[in-house]
Amino acid sequence: MTAVEFLFDFGSPNAYLAHQVIPHIEKRTGARFEYTPVLLGGIFKATGNRPPMQAFAEVPSKMAYERLEMERFIKRHAVAFAFNPFFPVNTLSLMRMAVAAKAEGNLPRYMEAVFRGMWIEPKKMDDPEVAKAALAASGLDPALYERGQAHEIKAKLAANTEAAVARGVFGIPSFFVGAELFFGKDRLRDVEEAIVAAG
Length: 199
Description:
The chain is an alpha+beta fold. The chain has a single domain (4-198), classed as Glutaredoxin (3-Layer(aba) Sandwich), CATH 3.40.30. Helices cover 57% and strands 9% of the residues. It contains 10 helices and 4 strands. The protein has a 4-stranded mixed beta sheet, sandwiched between helices. Strand 1 (4-8), helix 1 and strand 2 form a beta-alpha-beta unit. Helix 1 (13-29) packs parallel to helix 10 (188-198) and helix 5 crosses helix 9 (151-166). The radius of gyration is 16 Å and the shape is globular. The N and C termini lie close together (7 Å). The relative contact order is 0.20.
């Protein structure tokens, strides 16, 4: 089976929405997505890209259309979603914890807890105490926060981010089917078609 990879950052609402659809693609295709934590802020800095709210701040009709497309996606896929009133949230510590959770074999549970705290029951997840409380409420060890501060974890997140940029990534969510890059939740159909074509 061709390698399929999902590069994500919790700060992207579109990464959350894509995450909700990926299980259906896996079920239909038999593929398994490898989740890779990266730092969106680092990608923006390295590529000169900017968040849509900044890039299109002077094009109100563009932002209105983006919101409409998001609403259509949410309705189409029946996804629970609530915009985080604390957006933008600094996700550095959250993404470091994602690297630690993946190393410990606990990334899926961790992701569900953080995505819930970001985009279902929104909280100020860049507050360490709020993040720890969200982990504890989901049955996870709050000490993961401290483990995420280890030098090797910080280095791994930086390496993931640098590698993503080197492969052409400029934003999140991004996907690779083999070596082919796809960007955005609206490319999930293309991702699925590429998986099927790769056999």
